[in-house]
Amino acid sequence: MDKSEVLRYLGHKGQQLSRGLDLEIDEMINKCRDISKPKYVYKIYNIKKHPDGVEFLGSSLYLFGKSVINHLKGADKCAIFAATLGADIDREIAVMQKTDITRALILDAAASALIEEVCDTAQNEIAGLAKREGRKITSRYSPGYGDLSLDYQQKILNMLDAQRKIGLTASTNNILLPRKSVTALIGFI
């Protein structure tokens, strides 16, 4: 895990860290690595664009919105993925919030950095598949970006069988559970 990313999540602007705080950050990074159970799953679909959204062929998913159309401009295939660090890190952060808010904040920042690394790993794997086809990929695009509604979370999780495969669900308000989780789209161009 890149310590500079953890510091970025903590709002660090280059100021000098005390030796004690620096050691505490290292300890929470190690704790995050030890507790987390990173997993991801993805599927690749052929897509068809329409004036009001994108259809995922062979599925019931139809994403409405101009932002997703724009993001997938030039793409005729799309990977949908979900990634999580698992429930144990959420529980540890919650316990720490009751006993040591500083350590809880550091652990939360480390978990945020780690889930991004997991997403990068999934994205690199997907990029490798695209490269074998002589293609490139778009950046990641998640529900909640632009006009792509969070209401798609559950459909995406169902398409990926994410609850069974990686233990990822969504609340009735479309918040991913465990919290240190991501769903995203990556177009093949």
Structure description:
The protein is α+β, with helices and mostly antiparallel strands. It has one domain: NADH Oxidase (3-Layer(aba) Sandwich). 47% of the residues lie in helices and 21% in strands. The chain is built from seven helices and seven strands, in the order ααβββαβααααβββ. The chain has a five-stranded antiparallel sheet with strand order 3-2-1-4-7, with helices on both faces. It has a two-stranded antiparallel ribbon with strand order 5-6. Helix 2 crosses helix 5 and helix 4 packs antiparallel against helix 5. The radius of gyration is 18 Å and the shape is elongated.
Number of helices: 7
* CATH class term: Alpha Beta
Our measurement of the CA-to-CA distance between the termini, rounded to an integer number of angstroms, reads: 30 Å
Number of strands: 7
Instruction: Give helix % range.
Output: 40-55%
The CATH architecture category equals 3-Layer(aba) Sandwich
Shape: elongated
What's the gyration radius in Å? 18 Å
Give the number of domains: 1
